């Protein structure tokens, strides 16, 4: 499912995506690592400017308590769309064997 979030609030909204909820729901860590200090993890964030719509948001963002609360309050609107099938491409035609054989190799005389 494709998730789209729209900022319906009259100001900039930023959500921290904590490791404990976002990365666990995502199944992979999305945190940055701060050099030094034992490789401390820095959480990712999601920023929506006023009236901006962000498409293809990872579904795991909905597991973040602050994002879920903003959706319940109506500060952010959520739209889910079923994934569309990728356009089918016509089968590629391989070059004929005679075209391959007519090429000269480097160094051949």
How are the elements arranged and paired?
Blueprint: E1 2-7, E2 13-17, H1 19-26, E3 32-33, E4 41-42, E5 44-48, E6 53-57, H2 65-73, E7 76-81, H3 97-101
Antiparallel strand pairs: 1-6, 1-7, 2-5, 3-4
Any descriptors?
28% strand; 3-stranded antiparallel β-sheet; alpha+beta; 109 residues; two-stranded antiparallel ribbon; 7 strands
Structure write-up:
The chain has 109 residues and is of the alpha+beta class. 20% of the residues lie in helices and 28% in strands. It has three helices and seven strands, in the order ββαββββαβα. The chain has helices spanning 19-26, 65-73, 97-101; strands spanning 2-7, 13-17, 32-33, 41-42, 44-48, 53-57, 76-81. The strands form three sheets. The chain has a three-stranded antiparallel β-sheet. β3 (32-33) and β4 form a beta hairpin. The longest helix has 9 residues, at 65-73. The relative contact order is 0.27.
Helix content: 10-25%
- Report the principal-axis shape: extended
Distance from first to last alpha carbon = 58 Å
Can you count the helices?
A: 3
Let me know the largest β-sheet.
3 strands, antiparallel
Arithmetic mean pLDDT: 82
Calculate Rg over CA atoms.
24 Å
Ranges where pLDDT stays below 50 over 5 or more residues in a row are: none
Which range does the strand content fall in? Answer: 25-35%
Give me the strand/helix succession. Answer: EEHEEEEHEH
Number of strands: 7
Briefly note the structural class of the backbone.
alpha+beta
What is the spatial order of strands in the main beta sheet? 6-1-7
Short recap of the structure:
The protein is 20% helix and 28% strand. The protein is α+β, with helices and mostly antiparallel strands.
